[in-house]
Design goal:
The protein is α+β, with helices and mostly antiparallel strands. 26% of the residues lie in helices and 36% in strands. A five-stranded mixed sheet has the order 1-2-3-4-5.
Length: 102
């Protein structure tokens, strides 16, 4: 839990244990979670005008293999339309890309 909230996350690893580098990365993200999430939602609302007044619920913090340590993503569900999952991808710790999945 972070700031009294459960934070769902996906982290890569093997069948028996998570990747230690990604665990360290996740721990670093969680120490800055409130700031990073605020940046993510501000960035998403700035890039996607239809989301400016929408309640967004965090559905996933993704820390996966094959990317540099500063790269990760937040995924959100629009509380009014849960068929879309909005994604904010961070590159070097900064939000850079948005998109959505059906």
């Amino acid at each position: 839990m972070v700031a009294g909230r459960k934070v769902p996350f996906l982290i890569c690893g093997s069948v028996t244990s998570p990747d230690e580098q990604r665990v360290a990365q996740l721990q670093s993200i969680l120490t800055q979670f409130e700031r990073l999430e605020r940046h993510a939602t501000e960035f998403l609302r700035g890039k996607e005008p239809e989301l400016r007044d929408t309640k967004l619920d965090l559905s996933l913090l993704e820390v996966t293999a094959g990317k540099p340590a500063g790269d990760f993503a937040f995924e959100y569900v629009d509380s009014g339309n849960d068929s879309l999952v909005w994604r904010v991808e961070f590159v070097d710790g900064v939000p850079k890309l948005t998109g959505f999945d059906h």
